[in-house]
Amino acid sequence: MQGPGEAYSLFRTEDMHNYSVEFSPFRDGLLAIGASQYFGIVGNGRQYIVQKDPVSGRMQIVRFFETNDAIFDCTWNEMNENQLASACGDGSVKLWDLQTKDAFPIQSYHEHMQEVSSVDWNVVSKRSFLTASHDGTVKLWDPTSPRSLRTFQEHAQVHSFMHFANIFIQHSNIAILHNES
Which family does the similarity line name (predicted)? Predict the structure, then answer.
């Protein structure tokens, strides 16, 4: 057992820079790591799924998915332990399923006009997730729908947000509370 401040485990990504880490809400020691080449400025992205070995304590790659642009954030689907979403530098949002045989996303959304900097699943209702983009928008998604459910565009600059139940807070130079309904 680690004490406060001790490393959980070490995982090095070859030729990639890590942008986000999300612990699985379903499985102990399973993590999603969003990574990008060249600090996310140019190059490809990789969505890693890694598992901590209970005996050695080392992180081992379970699966990974490649993208043509950076991955800046990721989040686990709160209703399906095998799915996660990635926020990509080309303005897309990818929905992955760990049980597919191929390495393609099960859904690829292309509605943002610039980089998607943040993605967050609703941990209360579990049926939706939000994305924030450098295009100044926050979008509400249902993973079963082919397009976003709603677009919030109250700011010119949105960097990230916090998502609680049906309310979320946009982080920019001003915080605004929104109700999803």
Answer: Belongs to the WD repeat peroxin-7 family.
94: domain CATH number?
2.130.10.10
Side-chain half-sphere CA neighbours of 62 within 13 A = 17
116-121 β-sheet, strand order: 116-121, 129-133, 138-141, 150-152
Q: Which two tokens stand for residue 52?
A: 């901590």
Number of domains in the chain: 1
SS3 45: strand
Each residue's pLDDT tens digit, 7-40: 667 777 888 888 899 999 999 999 999 999 987 7
DSSP per position, 143-161: TTSSS-SEEE---S---EE
Q: What is the DSSP code (8-state) at residue 113?
A: S
Residue 80, Cβ density class (10 Å: 0-12 exposed, 13-18 middle, ≥19 buried): middle
Residue 117 included in any domain: yes
Q: In 3-state terms, what secondary structure has residue 164?
A: strand
pLDDT tens digits, 93-147? 999 999 999 999 999 999 999 999 999 999 888 999 999 998 989 899 999 999 9
| Cα-based distances in Å from 177 to 31, 157, 165 | 30, 15, 12
pTM: 0.84
User: Is the CB of residue 36 less than 8 Å from the CB of residue 19?
Assistant: yes
